[in-house]
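[Automated response] Your request has been received and processed.

Submitted sequence:
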Amino acid sequence: MPSVPTHSRARPPGWALALALFAVYAALALLWLSPLSLNLAGHLYDPGDSMINSWALAWDWRALTTAPLELFNANLFYPARNSLAFTEHLLVPALLAAPVLAASHNPILAHNLVLLLTFPLSGLGVYLLCRRLGAGFWAAALAGFFFAFCPYRTLQVSRLQIEAVMWAPYALLFLHRWLAGGAWRDLGGLLLFYVLQALSCGYWALYFGLCLLLAGAWGLSLGRRWASGRRWAQIALGALAGALVLAPVFTPYLSAWSDMGFHRTMEAAVQGSAGPLAWLAAPKGLALWGSVLGGWGHQEAYLFPGLAVLALAAAGVALYRGHGRPAPRWLYLGLALFSLAMSLGPEIRLGGLELAGPYRFLYEHAPGFAGLRTVARWGMLYQLFLAVLAGLGLTALLARVRPAWGRALLVGLAALALGAELFPGPMPKSGPHPVPGKLPPMVTWLAARPGPGAVLHLPMDSLRQDAFFRYLSAYHWKPLVNGYTDLQARGHAALAVLMKAPTPELVADLARGGVGWVLVHRAKLDPGEAARVSAALEAMPGLARRAGQWPYLDTVAFELIPPRAPAPALPPGRPLPPAALAASQWPQDMNRALDGDPATAWGTGRAQRAGDFLQATWRNSFELGGVEMNLGYEPQLLPRGLRLELLDASGSWREASFRVRLTPLMAVLARPARVPARYVLRLERPQRALGLRLVLTRDGPWPWVVAGLTLLPPAGALAP
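Generated structure:
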């Protein structure tokens, strides 16, 4: 029997090395995230995004196990449809979290464990990719170490969807395998891991998908692979299979954005882009570079990867030859530079100069890219491609060092340099947060309420509070009227303003529309607003009754009582008679408010200011029951602190008392971009007038628009 060389006996199989490396990365992740890693069951890194993502994991798992076809009809933004599409769906992370959710019913624990898992999965993927490209074990292991704990990952630790980039290196691995051999199983692996990546985060579906297309084009250009009919047949079938899998998930996004009128402006994309010097900005949490380079960045634009990885990547470009393979250094250098250039956004601003950025073409012409706000997130892919180059560079350097002790020293120095530059120091955490066994009494009370009535929490215009109320709903699953995203949910933003001073008309509309409970968290409201809202609801005995009270957040719960009579139909309004028109801003545009088209409007063109006004006077007086302002498809741009003045026969302007109603309320909440909002001012008593003046008494964060203006007759103008 032939003898086996000693070094072959001592070498562990490849899978054993990979598993050992995965365990090392996992142990380092526990260290990296401490002290959060010591409090996984009840603490989070951030009470905003991390809490929203915890809710998303719980919702996905509940929907998939009870009513999978209703996955996107989440329990927030009631009564809107496809409300899960207002945010990241986190479908694949939810599948990873499924065992924890099934066993513990603790979304926070599930979130933190999946977050931890993204680190070793990312590191292992880069290790395997580098090995495929010819890197040695230690070089590939350190490349994986860099990507698992790269600075951009430290920056994004509160955003599970951004951390969930761990499938990208596996997709690249199978791309290289398929390019080399054309095997169907490798094409299947490529498709599988791209789908996993696309269903983990919408950003990576587009950003990484484009990089994958560029890498595939590069590979097909080598050796005339593009001329193979079999390759094109594989591409066509793979694209069809991917589209069939992804279409059911991305179609609800198109529907939701159309109904809600979501839109990213060019300026929003510019603000979310990295500046020209962002590649020198380090996240402030890094122990070594944070205090030195932290001031160079903004928002999420911190792209500095560290000097060690830049040096190793430069060595990869200069020295790595590929040992007979088509050298991949130019591919990954091109992808790194492409990602860095894309991160600059649609406009590059430096001092007084403004230049069109390379991302502008994607924003203007490529489907989906105009819907993404934080263009600087290309920085994560930039650091992924740098990691591959660094693995190739260290391999090339080790090949030039002869003595074993010299190679060991070089590996040790590289590891120390990477560790020193990447280490974040203690991670902050928030908590403890409510978890099973430690839930606020109002949550268990809501869970025990019969019927499907929706819940409205006040306040409802705060991201932090929305995240908290959304998370708590995972323990009762009643529909929530609440919902807050970085995109303006127009109808709900208008409702948030109106609920600061609720009227019987408003409460009646909510009750008729299926809202069963209003919870006023007085500790989270301004004292004056808390007293005003509570007193208003207490004064509606036929519409609302106090149903519970708890010291937690000084919470009072009101049950809404639907009126027996249907909502009265508003009488047809009368167009303004021939009038003399005036306005504080853009009086020449007043015709836009009188042309009968809700898509055109007069507006202030800037944030509301006290004193802004709109005025109309006419020759003959007649009796008014109210005034209707059509807000068009922008209900959130309703006036703040509105005063109505009427011109009497003596020529004097006198203030008139009125109550307001936004109608059709529930239809506007469900589809504000499709249903014009009518803001009705009902006079407390009919009055004769020769004119009207609408005046703002408070500043507001948004413009004021009027898409239509009509006069209502005295009878039946408004009733609860």
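Summary generated for your ticket: The chain has a mean pLDDT of 92. The chain has three domains: 36-257+283-422, 441-560, 574-712.
If you did not submit this request, please reply to this message.
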